[in-house]
Write a structure and sequence with these properties.
It is a single chain. By secondary structure, the chain is mainly alpha-helical. It is built from 18 helices and four strands. The strands form two sheets. The protein has a two-stranded antiparallel sheet with strand order 1-2. Helix 13 runs parallel beside helix 18 and helix 15 runs antiparallel to helix 18.
Amino acid sequence: MADGRKSSRKSLTSEQLKRSIGSLGPAEAADALEALDPALAAEVLQSINPSVVGDIIPELEEASRDSLFAVAPAGVTQQWSLNLSFPEGSLGRLMEMPPLTFHPDETVGAASERVRAIPRTVFFTYAFVLDSERRLVGVCTMRDLLAADDNATLGEVMLKDVFTLQPAIQLDDAMRLVVQKHFPVYPVVDDVGRFLGQVRGSAMFQEQAVEISAQPGQMVGVNEEERLLTPWPRSLKFRHPWLQLNLLTAFLAAGVVGFFQETLDQMVILALFLPVLAGQSGNTGCQALAVTLRGMTLGELEQGAARTVVSKEVLLGVLNGFLVGLVAGVGMFVVARAQGNPNALALAGIVVLAMMGSCVISGISGALIPLTLQRVGADPATASSIFLTTATDVASMGMLLGLATLLLM
């Protein structure tokens, strides 16, 4: 069976394998690569985003990893090992080693001959010029090599003021630095200027797109590693713990209803409006959450701006809660009058007040939950929707039932 699967994999083209493995999570991709011939597996790994490679390699069995490293080019495997030494999510995970580097004393003619020898299928954009200690001293574009005299040295024609990036910088921060540059490739250097590798602009944007696409799932407890083709046992493993947490937090909301059971028994009409308040306040909180996460992703949330963000959500909660509450209050009044309830007007006012209060609390929660998660070192998007749902349900139900108990019982 394993041999059949291996044979089937071999029949696919490298491009097909690249797309197939790129659609899998790291563990599933590692399993798929282990079914390939090591040389083909190495070829496929070299053709996909280096960050994805960095996630896959640790998932490989040790024997498979050794076989793959034995057939891959030494410079490539050294780069993979170097990339893995940097934190997850950092720019260092995206580095590649260019096919050639150059010395400032090398002539344009000699450098051009070396460039011509590179296969057309190999990605090559800039000639990075390094000194004897591998410090980046300049860069030559293809136009520089074509226009310069063959006898001139690269040191004479190279661009010396080179824009560089640091490997430990987080991808979000790197994206903000390069957003106005639009270079196809960026050199990466260490603290003393030693050349560590290059990062393609396309790889950065691809990785950022993956991070952004994963964010909605993380908000509800879906692991970033889970993909459409992830086997159901692993999907169950990723999702189920968060569902248990969600169930636990749902008991808090149920506890609020239970606490006011006597009020509900006497005024059953309140049960009709519990979902209304929970839904409206929940949507208010999700709006605040989405805007806050977007601001954090784009770097718009400067230090000390949290108070301004929260103040804005309080104001929006009051205004939106009042306007929505008026409509809901009219609905309560009509239903209560139809049932002959003598407290119809009071119930309508309670709905308006409860809607305002719950929208304020949900707006504040939507802003503070991701900020708090970030402060404690967690991903701001991780299960934020689960925590937000709990806060909004408790606030909306507690407000409505609490005010009714206080004012009418």
